[in-house]
Amino acid sequence: MNFKLIFNIATHLLRARLKQSVVAAVGVTFGIAMFISLVSFMNGLNDLLDGLMLNRTPHVLLYNEIKPSENQPISLSETHKNDVNFVNSVKPKDRGKAIYNSKSIMHYLKQDQRIIDVAPKISTPVFFNSGTIEISGVINGIDVLAEEKLFALSDYIIEGKIADLEQNNSIIIGKGLADKMLLVKGDIIKITSAKGNLASLKIVGITQIGIADIDNTVSYTSLNTAQKLLGEATNYVTDIQIKLYDITTAPALATEFHNKFDLDTIDYQTANSQFETGSSVRSIISYAVGIVLLIVAGFGIYNILNMMIFEKMDSIAILKATGFSGNDVKWIFISLSLIIGLVGGVFGLLFGFIFSSIIDVIPFNTASLPTVTTYPINFNPLFYVIGITFALVTTIIAGLFPALKASKIDPVEIIRGK
């Protein structure tokens, strides 16, 4: 089979029906460009939402949950172990929120090669006092350096610096809380802990994550300040946050650490299952729409090649009469389809990148997301590989059926009919 000759004949047929061929290529171009633009935008949006919530969540969290004892005293009794025991009005056990031997646990975890780092935290409910008004909220006492390393908290600070939390009796409050109480950086805020302890903290920053429930209630201070506020010792910690190199191992490691340290654990997938589901659905929709566009373009190629075969019956008959086999004719039309798909695909990649770049610079200003200035776009090269691959597969399939039809044409019947 002379592929060079077959290619030359295919290009000649392409030029003979140039307008229709260009229309088919434009269909492929449009399909790929829209596919890439849509997928890039949807995945950029997913990354944005993940950054707002999932990246603020530890991959594994160790804590003490308030719950009833798994084994009631009667179930531990040898006398009644074989009896059916009914225990009513079971009360939760007060184990306390503090993690016992937290420093040793963190030291052990930091030696684990699967873990990037750990960050201790104290989470406690408080009342923010404004005159006679008390606004309920939560203070997170954090290790400033570890929190910044794992969760990049400074990305959400719109006033002040996270390093200022190293000062004694300082706090960073959410923008929603600041707006409610008409507070600004440098003001003093009065706080009452759940135990009734009073404290006056200086506001050194204001944070805005973009989620109202967090911005209205959550504030940050240093571990030392939180321990002083609660009247606890310097080893008092309620949560140990863990970031992993491989986040897919989070559920398994959560179970492992639960058994090893006898602490309650939760992995990020369980904690943010709704966000995970939303991201998956958006990705499926974007891929489905893009694939439909390419399939529609494939039907256009199919129709154009079918019409070309009908109009080029004489040429096909002459080719067969001069010694071209049915297989040669089939490859001529498959080559024609491939040329259309390849040219349209390359231009589709180019225009897809251009459209994505345009979307990436369109201003997107909203008070709830101060760190986001333009529409989010993900320029993952995988999207371009998927786009060109699917375009070529679609055009090959679209050209295969007309090519098989052309290969079965009987030249004698065509010539006799003329």
Structure description:
This protein has 418 residues and is of the alpha+beta class. It has 14 helices and ten strands. α1 packs across α12 (326-361). The model has no long low-confidence stretch (mean pLDDT 81).
Structural class: alpha+beta
> Unreliable stretches, pLDDT < 50, 5 or more residues?
none
Total strands: 10
Mean pLDDT across the residues is: 81
Distance between the termini: 29 Å
Strand residue content: 15-25%
- Could you describe the largest sheet, including whether it forms a barrel? 10 strands, mixed
Helix amount: 40-55%
Radius of gyration: 33 Å
Give the topology string: H per helix, E per strand: HHEHEEHEEHEEHEHEHEHHHHHH
Overall geometry: elongated
The helix count comes to 14
SSE inventory with pairings:
Elements lengths: L2 H14 L1 H35 L7 E4 L38 H9 L4 E16 L2 E10 L1 H8 L5 E4 L9 E5 H7 L6 E6 L4 E10 L4 H4 L2 E5 H8 L8 E6 L5 H12 L2 E4 H4 L1 H39 L1 H9 L4 H36 L19 H27 L3 H7 L1
Helix pairs in contact: 1-12, 2-10, 2-12, 2-13, 10-13, 11-14, 12-13
What are its keywords?
elongated; alpha+beta; 418 residues; 10-stranded mixed sheet; single chain
Quick overview:
The protein has helices at residues 3-16, 18-52, 102-110, 144-151, 175-181, 212-215, 223-230, 250-261, 268-271, 273-311, 313-321, 326-361, 381-407, 411-417, and strands at 60-63, 115-130, 133-142, 157-160, 170-174, 188-193, 198-207, 218-222, 239-244, 264-267. It has 418 residues and is α+β, with helices and mostly antiparallel strands.
